[in-house]
Write a structure and sequence with these properties.
This protein is α/β, with parallel strands linked by helices. Helix content is 43%, strand content 12%. The protein has a seven-stranded mixed β-sheet with strand order 3-2-1-4-5-7-6, with helices on both faces. The longest helix is centred in the last third of the chain and has 15 residues. The structure holds S-adenosylmethionine (SAM). S-adenosylmethionine binds next to helix 4 and strand 2.
Length: 355
Amino acid sequence: MSGVAAEHGDRPAETEPLLVGHAPVLLAEVVAALAPRAGGRYLDGTFGGGGHTCAILEVSRPDGRIVALDLDPEAIRRAGGLAAELPQPHRLHPIQANFADLATVARAEDLVPLDGVLLDLGLSSFQLDTPQRGFAFRLDGPLDMRFDPTAGPTAADLVNELPERELADLLFRFGEEPRSRRIAAAIVRERSRATIDSTARLATIVSNAAGGRRGRETHPATRTFQALRIATNDELGALQRALDGAVSVLAPGGHLVVISFHSLEDRIVKRFIQLESTTCICPPDQPICTCDHQPRLARTTRRAVRATPAEIAENPRSRSAIMRVAERLDEELESGVGTTHRTTGADLLTAGRRR
Ligand SMILES: C[S@@+](CC[C@H](N)C(=O)[O-])C[C@H]1O[C@@H](n2cnc3c(N)ncnc32)[C@H](O)[C@@H]1O
């Protein structure tokens, strides 16, 4: 990655190892959307390997500041190493925290209002490629899947303790797994023989229950692993809280940039931006607006941004990346800037007076 290595110029070898291991997706697009500037304040809610943070640091030279969050202590350790490498270490402040709490963290760090918030969801290649973290069905390891491996129940706890019906619902809801009932029944049968505590054993159980790999592009355990990871980390709940928090700490003109990797996440982001950028949220069959809803965001792009074929060829992980961007509205300019405005009672009265 060019980021800090380029910023230093004279010390690329020291910073390079921090960045090897996870290729940031849609890097140019993220920078264009956030438009970092000198003196700006940014929050990267998902530091990971630091690729996006490095680019923001570089473009916001000489004094742009970033608070970088991650639940994973390893990512925060990498961020600490990166900060120590910077000519002005205070420009990067790493904090081990859930991005669900980003508004609280930003206020505590006296960084409000922020000029930009970035969320690059999911997991990093560091996590996927480390068998001990238990995210990958292709590598054998403990069935863990926690972004913060020191807190909360593991995926193995869910797999071994949830009632069959709840397990099936979880696989269907968070993995959109059509064979959820069959897979849940197989898990319950197998766990009565011996606790399921490894990724390889779970992958085999799921694969056998789902009828094996034949004719499939993806591994039969893909959806099950996604569902368990989402549930283990309450990913969708954290995302919703992060979006709510981001809007409350962004400066007018500040940007919210979110990269999702599956439709469940993207749906939440898309609906949130839609809701926050509309002037009326009354039921569609209500002829007169009574909600007095004030839009707080404006969509900067109507369509989601996707990786180019060239990026996908270089980094296959970017194939499923979906980026959405919105701009925080100025409180005083909010009315009438959103995307929908149904007739309000006040509009009708004004029109009546004009007639
Ligand atoms: C896709 S990686 C980010 C990669 C990063 N943008 C880069 O350029 O290297 C996602 C990161 O978000 C972290 N993460 C996931 N959910 C989180 C949450 N709720 N709060 C904080 N960090 C989270 C993961 O631990 C992981 O390191």
